[in-house]
Amino acid sequence: MNKICVIGNSVAAPRTAEEAPLAGWGQYLGGFLGPRYEVRNYARDAMTLRRYFTGRFATLLTALAPGDMVFLAFGNVEQRINQLNRHHGPREYKEYLRLYAEAIRGEGAIPVLLTPAARCAFDEAGNVVNTHDEYPDLTREAAAETGSPLIDTTALTTNMLAELGPTRARRLYRWLDPGEHPNHPDGIIDASHFNDVGAREVARRVAISMLDTAGLPPNTVDPQTLAVGTIPPVLAEFTVSRPELALTMTPSVPEGPVVVSPAPGEIVGAARKLTGKAPAGTGYVLFYEQGRYLGGTTVSPSGTWQWRRVVNWPAGPHIVDVLGVTGNAVSPTAVAEFHVLDRLDPPEVTGPRPDGWCGPRPRFSGTAAPGTQKVMVLEQGRLIAEAPVQEDGTWRVTHAHDWRPGTYEVQFVSVFSAIRSPAVSHPLRVHGVPEDSWLNTSLSSREPCSGSCEHYPAMPEW
Fold first, then answer.
1. Which of 242, 284, 354, 410 is spaced 20 to 30 A from 420 at the CA atom?
2. Do domains 239-340 and 348-431 have the same CATH topology?
């Protein structure tokens, strides 16, 4: 019997009954395979190419046998440029995929590259939104460059969402109203991870794709297991009868819902949720903008509610009316007022000056556009530092490692929520003792010391 080993992040990872309804598509893949194959699912939460390569990959290579397959399902986590320990720039991402493919082939096994599964996000026109930037394309390119089989999970899950549309699609995700599942009495909004129905459907579509993927062994999939699953029903918020009538009714409930977040006038991202509280007895909360019904949600037993549109908020200012329903009575209206950003300008870099010199510990500084949370610093496409943006729009960070003397190009990116600006390049000139100077080579017989050591001869302190 041959193995199909799945490595990747939380979207594919196996889940326990205690984590229900959360499920990973990798845990259902085995149900669609022929008798000669078994699945071993090693995907884990927040796993990245870098972390797995330097952690568990050696153990996996040791366990591989000729004819085994390794599914590399990454790209959901590596794109997060706002997280220093997780982000992989495009070159790093593709280089790791190349190293994986070569090592797996070295053991006689088959590397299979998978693009990341689509998140549940639509635009105002009902089109599925790409939330993974260039990472699906990077995976496709790496597959072509390494001659590896490719399963385009991005394409097959995007098609799945497009078939269902915004009124049904989130029923495949761990996205629940209060009271829908005992493990989440207050509800949960998760547009990235699948529930058991969604994970099984993604696994079925991955198996269908395997039938036509060049480079995979024949008879891997059992075609008799691929029958179409049940189409999920329309979401309850879209089955409310004539919801606009509630706006014309005279409020007969003394208290209405309270909006907790976002704060009045707050700058938010396109996928921002609304949260709040409601008086005891409130059964449902309805949301409107300019008199148009947007959706609704139930209220939890603790009197809280949370709601997010499956359709992303358009950029610009929004004033949303929030109305509570108790039986046949309606409450006074509360208001959620916020401003949506969908793009950011690059930061301005003021230090070091482009024509100036700095010591081996450069201090970067500048200003950023309103809404920017952090400025990320990259060199050769790799993250090297981050700088929180202050209330006055300024930012600064001193790099933690010494730079060698020379001239470099450093890139800076503004980030807010899931939004990133284009990168802006800035020249950096580092002053110091050249490595080939006699001041350094004369000490080559000894291990290097820091400038603050008491041994002689001493190196300069900065």
1. 354
2. yes
Question: Tell me: the pLDDT tens digits for 29-72?
Answer: 999 999 999 999 999 999 999 999 999 999 999 999 999 999 99
Q: How far is CA 390 from the centre of its chain?
A: 25
| pLDDT, tens digit, 9 for 90 and up, residues 327-366 | 999 999 999 999 999 999 999 999 999 999 999 999 999 9
Task: Tell me which fold the domain 348-431 belongs to.
Answer: Immunoglobulin-like (2.60.40)
Asked if 2 contacts 35 with a C-beta cutoff of 8 angstroms, the reply is no
CATH number belonging to domain 239-340: 2.60.40.10
Q: Write down how long the chain is.
A: 462
What is the domain class of 2-225 according to CATH? alpha beta
Domain ranges in the chain?
Answer: 2-225, 239-340, 348-431
Q: Which residue has the tokens 């190349």?
A: 98
Q: What angle do CA 76, 77, 80 make, to 5 degrees?
A: 110
Residue 447: the pLDDT is 72
Please give the C-alpha separations between residue 394 and each of 49, 363, 364, 366, 384, in angstroms, as whole numbers.
33, 13, 11, 6, 19
Q: CA-CA distance, 328 to 315, in Å (whole number)?
A: 35
Residue by residue, what is the 3-state secondary structure of the chain?
CEEEEEEECCCCCCCCHHHCCEECHHHCHHHHECCCEEEEECCCCCCCHHHHHHHCHHHHHHHCCCCCEEEEECCCCCCCCCCCCCCCCHHHHHHHHHHHHHHHHHCCCEEEEECCCCCCCECCCCCECCCCCCHHHHHHHHHHHHCCCEECHHHHHHHHHHHHCCCCHHHHECCECCCCCCCCCCCECCCCCEEHHHHHHHHHHHHHHHHCCCCCCCCCECHHHCCCCCCCCCCHHHCCCCHHHHHHCCCCCCCCCEEEECCCCEEECCCCCEEEECCCCCCEEEEEECCEEEEEEECCCCCEEEECCCECCCCEEEEEEEEEEECCEEEEEEEEEEEECCCCCCCEEEECCCCCCECCCCEEEEECCCCCCEEEEEECCEEEEEEECCCCCEEEEECCCCCCCEEEEEEEEEEECCEECCCEEEEEEECCCCCCCHHHHCCCCCCCCCCCCCCCCCCCCC
* Sign of torsion over alpha carbons 55, 56, 58, 61: negative
